[in-house]
Amino acid sequence: MAAPKAKRRRLLVWGSVAAVVVVALVVGVVVFRTVTAPHSATHVAATISVGKTPDSLTVAPDGTVYVTNTDDGTVSVIKGDRVTTTINVGKSPVGAAVAPDGTVYVPNGGDGTVSVLR
After folding, report:
1. Fewer C-beta within 10 Å: the chain N or C terminus?
2. What are phi and psi of 76, to 5 degrees?
3. Which string of b and e fits 75-98 if b means at least 16 CB within 10 Å?
């Protein structure tokens, strides 16, 4: 009777060891795939200075970014990771929209106008 109990105990121990090894392998694979996977938006790649109180942005089909700067009445135009130009628009611009032809419309809440950028 003692032999079957010892055998059972050995099977339980080795079965537990095998389970721990399998779990460790699975965790290792998950960690490896997570660490080596391409990351998007996991760190700040660049900080771009624009005008006072940037409020919103819109992206044109060609990748140009337009940022409305509410406090100084401007729109910053960003290509890549730098401001290529700053355009004076009306008072308190908030939001912008890009039309299919590339025209940018900027509503100016402070003076009730819309600036048209081409």
Report:
1. N
2. -90, 130
3. bbbbeeeebeeebebbebbeebeb
Which of helix, strand or coil describes residue 36? helix
Q: How far apart are CA 23 and CA 66, in angstroms?
A: 49
Q: What sign results for the dihedral spanned by CA atoms 46, 47, 51, 52? A: positive
pLDDT of residue 66 exceeding 80, the answer is: yes
Distance in angstroms (rounded) separating the CA atoms of residues 19 and 38: 31
SS3 at position 13: helix
C-alpha pair distances (Å), 108 with each of 64, 91, 113: 21, 5, 5
- In three-state secondary structure terms, 61 is coil
Distance of CA 110 to the CA centre of its chain: 31
Beta strands at 97-98 and 82-88: parallel, antiparallel or unpaired: unpaired
Q: Which of 47, 60, 49 is nearest to 106 (CA)?
A: 60
73 versus 9: the higher-pLDDT residue is 73
